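Quick check before the chapter quiz. The format below is the same one you will see on the exam, so make sure you can read both the input and the output lines.
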Amino acid sequence: MQWPLCFVLIVGQMMLVTSDILHQLDILSAKDVVEEEESVTLKCRGHQIGKHSDISVNLYKNGEKVQMKPSTKEMGIVTFKLENIRREQTGNYTCFYEEKTTENMMHIKTENFLSLTIKSSVLTLQAEKKKSVQGGLDVTFKCFFPKGKKIQNPPNMFELYENGVKIMSKSVENKRGVEFTVENVNETSDATYMCLYRGQGDFTIQSQQYGLQHRDLNFVLNVIGLAISGVVLLALGFIFHDACCQTREKDSFYLQK
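Here is the expected output.
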């Protein structure tokens, strides 16, 4: 006699569970392509926001709720601010407001979304070498971002590494690059150097590695071009030589006749 009672209790409990019905809102932003470490403001707009003060507006990325609270809510607009943005935050963003109900919603249409793209920042490392008065090389490393890059939340740090070990660092305000000078380096040194930019929090960007025995790309291409030209000229020389030999043999044959 206990089984029917348990069944009735379970069914009654399932019917009393409430779920959140999601209603989509318009989403707006001044830009949809940004660089890492920048900030983006997303605005969720809908007439329902002004009419109901007890509704909860949430931001979703690729269908999953973003765990953050809105920064402002006024005049029917709820604002979310994404600060120090990272590349992994690229995705399609939507806004929904939730309403408690006893109905169960299985499918949600997402007709209005904002596709946000975060571009990777590029940090370049270049080197200029000159003879040192002590007999070695004085190497000036230039570590910089492309023109137009905005440094967010200064001051930030640039660091120079030699064979994986930090040897120098400089704090900067709004500059997009710095210079490091390493004095009296052995000309035959096979050391490799790398520049690292350290922003707010744990945000870092690394440059490509630079070896002191590094050859400029144009120099390499010129050498390859000269080698190819030499092979072509040599092949043409053999063809011309064979043609001349064949002509001489024919002339000799006719003279003998």
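If your answer matched, good. The CA atoms of residues 57 and 97 lie 4 Å apart.
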